Amino acid sequence: MYDSLTAAYKQRKLFYLTLCLLNCLNPNPALAAAKSVDIAIQGFVIEGNHVLTDAQLQAQLLPFLGPGRRFADIQKALETLQQFYRDQGYGEAVVSVPAQELNAGIIRFSVIEPILADIHVEYQPESLRAFYPESKIRANLPALQSGLLLRSVDISQNIQLANENPARKMAVVLSPGADKTQLDATVKVSGLPPRKAYTTIDNTGTALTGEYRMGFGLQHANLWGRDHVGTFNYITPIESPTHVNLFSGSYRIPLYGWGDSLDISAAKSDVGNSSTDTVAGPLQFAGSGEIYALNYNLLLPRWGEYSHRLVAGYNYRQFNNHCTIGVFGSQACGPSGHEISLMPLSVNYSGQFSWQAQTLSFYLLGAHNLPGMAHGSQNDFTQLRPALNGGGGAPAEYNVFRSGFNFNALLVEDWQLRLAGNGQFSPDALVYAEQFSLAGSTMVRGFWEREVTRDTGFVLNNEIYGPDLAELTKLGDHLRGLVFYDYGAGQNNALNGERKQALDLNSVGFGIRLGFNQSLQLKFDGSYVLSGAASHPDGDVRGHLSVYLPYSF
């Protein structure tokens, strides 16, 4: 992303610090004597500082005043000033001790605050220049301004936001300028053209609506030349096209001046008349749903290798179900035939920390539903999940807390470890749409998507990846095998007359990850159910397939 100092500039900085130490150790007898002779430091004089005030800097040096001081105290004072500059985001500033005589116990420090002189933009490949003009690249980095002292934390945040663009990546490289008071910056731009069409195939459907699904998508990652990202998707079953129609769209607006972004998304689904036999006659089902979401992403200042953000979200979800069973009509469907609307407000804090060959990311989310919209009253919730023995049903004003983590580590000989977990806690009885899914291709594998749900639960995924075999097999650019063990547990918050229905699921299996750079990506997991439920009992097997084929233009 952004290294606060490149190798060349680090060398120059090291040179200045070396000169500083030589000045302190050799040329000046008074300072040399200070190594072994106690001195009384009466005060400090700081020269060359502009971005930080003298009062701010002097406050950092108060602990080093007084009698009985030695060279080590002067060195610690210098390091304290240098660290204070870094803490304020000005890691390029250099603090040194110039050659001097000790007069009346006054120590002089010199500060070099190098300003940015020239900015160069390089493209790889050069054809990207036509899609991402240099003027737009500069506009995406408002913290990179000629004539100003760079604030590394601001540049890092600019780069982080800019690199959330799915088609284009940027990096900033600093180098020495014409003299010690200047720096030059090179912005390296890489990636693909902003337009992309793609096809997906997976088996995330059900036997009722079609197990295998095909999707088509379009994405433009530089709308209006402002880095706005628009995406449209359409998914339908392969077995019976248009029987199920899933439409979705999203729009992202980066706010480079603030360092934040805004996400707007919508989705609509409809399921045509589906029929399956039951002991009471044919079950006829048709339904539709709509989802609208608005999220504001607040990127928080980086702490070294730790990046984090806060996301405030608003969702509106409406589910319309129509059900009949034989001659009994809709009355026999019970809660399955009712409509419901949800309007949760949420706050999500997420972070990521990288060190050596390991990465840890996590999130913590809290959501509160606002009742009162059409089909969102307490009566609607009670009809959808009533208390069997009387009393109130599922509350319309409910709270949900979710969390998750993902840990990746490089083991020996290119082997890799991945540990992931997701969970949900709620003190309330929830309607189906808000329950936590324990089963599916990204949860406990070996089951249909959302085959098993509970009010509260968690899932752990444990995976070990073998070495990359692409070069050995001459197949793809990335090819790894893996073995996994999944475990999940959950229970309901029982209403009057209900049971908690506590259960656990677990499965083992193997998988394959095959990828071609900027092209076909294939994922397959074969699962063996150790502890099952619903339509996949113990000993059942199931494969999860996902294919993604993009084309950029």
From TrEMBL:
GO molecular function, one term: protein transmembrane transporter activity
Highest rank taxon of the organism: Bacteria
GO biological process: protein secretion by the type V secretion system
Domain Polypeptide-transport-associated ShlB-type, first and last residues per copy: 40-113
Signal peptide residues on this chain, from the entry's feature table: 1-32
Residue ranges of every copy of the Haemolysin activator HlyB C-terminal domain listed in the record: 194-513
This protein's record includes keyword Membrane: yes
Keyword Magnesium included in the entry's annotation: no
Record's GO cellular component terms: type V protein secretion system complex
InterPro entries named in the record: Hemolysn_activator_HlyB_C, Polypept-transport_assoc_ShlB, TPS_OM_transporter
Residue ranges the record marks as coiled coil: none
UniProt keyword annotations, A-Z: Cell outer membrane, Membrane, Signal, Transmembrane, Transmembrane beta strand
Pfam families: POTRA_2, ShlB
PANTHER family named among the record's database cross-references: BLR6126 PROTEIN, SLR1661 PROTEIN
The protein's name: ShlB/FhaC/HecB family hemolysin secretion/activation protein
Organism: Methylomonas paludis
